[in-house]
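Sample intake sheet
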Amino acid sequence: MKFLLVFDFDHTIIDENSDTWIVKCAPERKLPNGLRNSYQPGHWTEYMGRVFVYLGDNGVKEDEMKRTMTTIPFTAGMIDLLGFIGENKELFDCIIVSDSNTVFIDWILKAADFHRVFDEVFTNPAAFSSTGYLTVQHFHAHHCAKCPKNLCKRKVLKEFLDKQLERGVSYTQIVYIGDGGNDLCPVMFLKKNDIAMPRQGYTLEKKISQLAQSVSPVQCSVLVWSSAIDIMSYLKLLIKE
């Protein structure tokens, strides 16, 4: 009996968007209008690449970025939830699927000593170049029309489950915890026995409830959360059953 917990990162584990938080490092804590307006829907990763170039051009170094990123608050109750999962790792496999990047997630999890809670992190690969600039790449290529160009979370989840099956690991239930529009695609992939946990008042919850009135509602159960304590209460019930 093992459960798979799938977490989004921004606005789910942390209470902010890591990509917009980094702007605090910019001169006057803001980006020039031309750069801000250069974002095109579905091409966030390319936009962040330009933001990192701007920060690098303005002399923002790795240690300053790291200091800034590790001040992001965790979502209410999340520290308790991750502590609880860490104490029950024999029952839970735990992964992150996020449109952030490896550098940011690594910094934040390690600073709070939560990196051991997660078995794998699937996110856009990032690294500092020899000139000290942060660079970010697409996580993968995919053919899903619903998802941003760089990441289809359904594809990530499906490939992870296939790989686990090859290792002889199957899950009693998948619990998907997220907030954003790009979490809908993997939620649509969940089966009847699984559960989607959208954050209250965020895009994912709204999209799921719109679908509930349509011909193709989600198959899985849905439980809305506002504090990670709600998620922990559900997991405690799960392991009692």
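Comment: The longest helix spans residues 44-57. Residues 19-70 form one domain.
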